[in-house]
Every structure is written in C-alpha cells, then in structure tokens.
Amino acid sequence: MQDMKSDDNFFGQVAQLFRDAKRKMSMSVNMAMVYSYYEAGRMIIDEEQNGSERAVYGKYILQELSGFCIVWPFIGGSKAYAG
Fold this sequence. Notes:
By secondary structure, the protein is mainly α. It has one domain (2-80). Helix content is 76%, strand content 0%. The model is unreliable at 79-83 (pLDDT under 50).
C-alpha cells in the first residue's frame, strides 16, 4: 500500500515537471512574439520615415506589407524569408 502512494507522488512530480516546462515554454514564445512585433513596428517606422523625424504620408508601406503578409505563405515565403 505504501508503494502505491509513493508511485502516485512520483508520478505527480513528473507530471508537474512537464506542466512547469509547458508554462515556461509558453512564456518564452509569448516574449519572442512581443519582441518580433516590436521590431516589425520599429522597422516599419524606420522605412516610413526614411531617416527623417516624421514620416511622409502616402507611401502605403503598411498597405503593401499587409498584402504581402496575406499572400506570403502561399508563395513559399516562409522558406524564402526565414532568417
């Protein structure tokens, strides 16, 4: 009977190990996505402003980029642009 309780405790510890790893992985992925969104925004601003303090409106970079992002997976972009 004592062995069953010991096994349950051991199995619970192993299960908790994987739950903790999954939680940590989710947090890491979330941080990577936040960083990617921040960097993409910075790159867009840099491109829009082209070195000036303020952007010249009417360049349509966001419209072009959004259209590209829609078709990108369908033209093999994930392989072509994977850094």
